[in-house]
Amino acid sequence: IMCTFRAGELSQWVSRLWKNGMPEENITGISHDTRTLKPGDLYVAIRGDHFDGHAFIQDAFAKGAVGALVDDAFQWSEKPILPVHSTLKGLQDLAVGYRKKWIGTAIGITGSVGKTTVKEMCADVLSVRADTHRTAGNYNNHIGLPLTMLSMPQAMRYGVFEIGMNHPGEIGPLSDMLQPQIGIMTDICNAHREAFHSLEEIAHEKMKLVEHVAPSGFVILDRDSEWYALMRQHTLASVVTVSFEGVADYIGRRVNERVMKVNGFDYSMPLPGEHIMRNALRAIALGLEMGMTPAEIREGLARFAPPPMRWQETEIDGIHFINDAYNANPLSMRASLKTFSELPESGKKWAVVGGMRELGTVAEEEHRALGEFIDGLGLDGVILVGELGHEIVC
Q1: How far apart are CA 107 and CA 287, in angstroms?
Q2: Which of 6, 141, 159, 235 has the maximum number of C-beta atoms within 10 A of its C-beta?
């Protein structure tokens, strides 16, 4: 299924006029990268810190672009261009315009850890019932989110969008762009801490998602989180609660390493670990709130495939390798290593551990604490790699 846009509506969404004529045919996609651009796309010339997309406009048209979104200063006399004050702002305006046209249900997901896993699980569950669009990979920032929105065919009933941040002031504008009817908060911890003074500051930034959820919609919040009260106070939407072994609307209870019971029904987990159960609990709650049956939700969870470098298992010469190295933070490291230590393997268990980036002033403290945590797991050995990895003393 393809997206199609009329040149006139794109002009209307950015409140500017085409130059050198308008593309005669419908535009079938939006691209900011000539390496992946397809014939029929609108090329968006983004200026970055280390590159300028305007340098590739000729390549874009050679590859079949039917028009280009460019900065006002850019001069071009041959092909249709849509000049705007800022192409980044123009891209975001296009996403806002398309969002108003799309009548499906938007689900926004943020948090410090588990965003991509929860996004994939939620999308897999909803796709059992209806056509569902999702963020590709972790395309979740000020460029990735609008591109993801603009790649969603209008016929999609659900859109599941991941919203990320590295600095203060990012979640609010992205949430405002998305206008979600449903919000889901994953666990909050010291991830991307460099630009923040405290964990509380991170929580307040994440909170901006639930502030932007439509009052007619709902948010899924973890009753076990220390930030639950804060999140609940800052949303006008209905609140749906989850808890692992606690009290909530949807309560997950561990049956064994791969099975969790939620409100009386068993669900098989696609991967081991309590953190996977906690992530799946949010997807199960979403499915049940949307009127799905436990059987449909089980089918959706069975479709889940972990993204690259997230618990990827291989066997080489009789040795079982697990690669769980994607963009680690203190919470995800503990969850992964604890799950690894509890696997019912007959051989010895060695962990190869690297450091954690973007922790700012708490980096030394967090690495030392992780070392103490690893020391208590009873592993047969630990290999520390990299400059940051050597700050972990086990």
Answers
A1: 12
A2: 159
Question: Residue 21 has which token pair?
Answer: 């004529």
Maximal C-alpha separation, the chain: 70
| pTM above threshold 0.85 | yes
List per-residue pLDDT tens for the chain, 394 residues long.
668 999 999 999 999 999 999 998 899 999 999 999 999 999 999 998 888 999 999 999 999 999 999 999 998 878 999 999 999 999 999 999 999 999 999 999 999 888 999 999 999 999 999 999 999 877 899 999 999 999 999 999 999 999 998 888 999 999 999 999 999 999 997 655 565 778 899 999 999 999 999 999 999 999 999 999 999 999 999 999 999 999 999 999 999 989 999 999 999 999 988 999 999 999 999 999 999 999 999 999 999 998 777 788 898 988 889 888 876 777 788 888 888 888 887 789 998 988 887 777 778 888 888 888 888 888 999 988 887 777 786 5
Q: Which of 155, 144, 128, 142 is nearest to 2 (CA)?
A: 155
Beta-ladder partners of 18 = none
Question: Whose structure tokens read 């200026």?
Answer: 47
Q: How many CA atoms lie within 13 A of 119 on its CB side?
A: 24
Give the DSSP letter string of 145-189. Answer: HHHHHHTS-TT-SEEEEE---SSTTSHHHHHHHH--SEEEE-B--
